[in-house]
Amino acid sequence: MKSIYPAVITVVIAVLGAADDQRIIAAIIAAAFLICTVIRISTESRILFMSAAGFPLVLTAGYAPVAGLLVFLLIITVLAGAETKLTLNCILAGLLAGAAGLLFALQISVLLPLLAIGIFIVILVYILFVREYRLKKYVEGTLK
Amino acid sequence: MRPTQLTGILMLCILICFGYAWLMNAAGAVGAGLGILVILGVRANLFHSGMKDLMTSLTVTRSVDKEILHQNSIIKVTSSITAVVKHMTASFEDVIPTGAVLVSGRTGFTNGETAYSINLPVIGESYFKGVRVTCSDLFFTRTILFARNAELPKLIMYPTGIGATYQLTGRRAGWSSIELDRPARIAGIDTRMFRPYTEGDNIRNIDWKLTSKHMNLYVRLKMDASGGRPALIVDLPQIGVSKNICMTFAETVAGCLGSNDFGDDSRIVFISGAMYLGMVRSGSIEEILAMLKRAGNIYPTDHLFRLSHPESIMNMISGHDKNQNAWSAGIRKLMQRNAGRYPSVFENTVHNIANLLDEEKQIIYITTASGDVSHMTYYLTEMRKYECIETVLVVGSTDRKKDVRDIFTRAGADAVEMIS
Question: For residue A44, which residues of chain B lie inside 8 Å, CB to CB?
Fold first, then answer.
């Protein structure tokens, strides 16, 4: 998927959903984000610039659902910019992160965001340690 | 799994986001940091899956010009790989055995292939370590050693330090001192005889005491109490075998007679397949040469010869055979009762040869191992009953080297050497 489509949606939602006193700064950051998406630079630089310009957009959100939605859309946009095939798993991970962002923005409980981080850490540990261990065992030789 | 520069910067961003969130109590900053973290997590997962697919699809084919080496051998290695690489960059490098030294060429693969030469100064068996794979994408990089099914072929290095020409060392070479082998004396073998180590000798036969004394490697030759010589069983190649192999075969027989101290009175048994051609003394050079000239000109009659049980003949002659004594007839009846049949001509012949060679402690077989080798396995099994050391020299075996080695080893050969 081309990253320009989710980028435009992100920009529109960011400007419309920004807090009243931060709408101008949101518009400026959103414009920078859009420019990062369309200009011809290397994929590596694009991801860096999109992350640097895109995620501060979340800070300008005036409403909790907008913050969650922005987190989700930004993840999708950056993954598309990184030329990653958007599978159901990627979208699900983005949705979970968006939900976690929403919970943080609501500031209703300390427990739920902690739970979200905990789940995320478990997933990271699984990837970094369990799968790594299995791969290491797989490539091991039988002759010494 | 190591992060690239881009991932490092993104992780710095996450840190700044969380720091900002902590200082300013900004929930959005946590969401932003978490978002980048999710991206990195997704990419880590994809990178890992890609790497796993790569490892699963990776196949390594490696060939060497020689597997049995001496210290100064230069081994030419040719390796090729096939792998499916998805969404990442991968480079491959062949990893040479521990202690090996790269002499020429490069171990890195180009277009899936590489060729190089190494020297292996490590005594004994060595294996290749595998293939080192370096995968990278925008976010992560990883170097892993892929050893699964990538360690063969096995290399065996025997130390040498012996020149091409050598003098026989031991009693017959006029040594002033005689090495006494006390454990062997108890077992009935009194005097040791040695010869310098040559490529392919079993390292268990190296006499370390003598080696340390002369600073050269020597191997023990087993002898019986009477100072008997090793016996030779020569399986002459039959018709159809190339002239080159016949020539190598004759050279091997001559070389064996020269290097194993056969003397003039050792027994040399000539066979061809299941046919018994005769027994010659090692001093009868002309007879030996006449036998060797027959190599490659013998028509095979193995099957008829091996399968012809003399039962029918025995039945015919038993009535009027004046020479057949009662004791011999009794044994044959006993054999028939227990084995269900009379022994075949071949079995009788092998049994008689084994009886003749029962005092020998070392039997050397020379064969081309072409076609049916069951006669050789029968000989090996029969001779094994006398607990002698059996060495098989296989001349010109190319395509089924491993099979032949396995067959002879299972039949009881102590050492199988391939000569091509």
Answer: 6, 138
pLDDT at B175: 42
Cβ-Cβ contacts under 8 Å between A and B: the total is: 142
Helix-strand-coil split of chain A, %, nearest 5: 80, 0, 20
Nearest CA in chain B to A56: B32
> Tell me: the pLDDT tens digits for A57-107?
888 888 889 989 999 999 999 989 888 888 888 899 889 888 888 887 877
CA distances in angstroms from B119 to B106, B198, B331, listed in the order given: 14, 19, 60
Could you identify the residue written with the tokens 């400026």? A28
ipTM of the complex: 0.77
Q: How far is B130 from chain A (nearest CA, A)?
A: 8
Report the residue of chain A nearest B152, measured CA to CA: A143
pLDDT number for residue B164: 30
Q: How far is A51 from chain B (nearest CA, A)?
A: 7
Residue B161 has pLDDT above 60, yes or no: no
* pLDDT > 70: percent of chain B: 75
- Which residues from B are below 8 Å from A78, CB to CB? 39
Taking a C-beta distance cutoff of 8 angstroms, is the pair B239, B385 a contact? no
Structure confidence at residue B192 (pLDDT):
52
Residue of A nearest to B24 (CA): A59
Token digits of residue B80: 């090729």
User: Residues near B354 by Cβ (< 8 Å), separated by ≥ 6?
Assistant: B379, B382, B383, B385, B386
**Cβ B34–A60 below 8 Å, yes or no?**
no
Greatest CA separation for chain B = 122
Q: At CB < 8 Å, which residues of chain B contact A?
A: 1, 6, 9-10, 13, 17, 26-39, 41-46, 48, 51-52, 55-56, 127, 129-130, 138-139, 144-148, 150-152, 154
Per the document, the length of chain B is: 420
In the predicted model, what is the mean pLDDT of residues B121-135? 86
Tokens of B403: 């099979």
Distance CA(B356)–CA(A144), nearest Å, equals: 45
Question: Is residue B87 scored above 70 in pLDDT?
Answer: yes
Contact B251, B366 (CB under 8 A): no
| pLDDT score for B134 | 92
- Choose, out of B39, B45, B56, B152, the residue to mutate when testing the contact with A (most A CBs < 10 Å): B39
Q: What is the pLDDT of residue A12?
A: 93
Asked if residue A62 lies in contact with residue A105, where contact means CB atoms within 8 angstroms, the answer is no
Residues present in chain A in total: 144
Of A52, A93, A107, the CB nearest to B38: A93
Read off the pLDDT band of B340 (50, 70, 90).
Answer: low
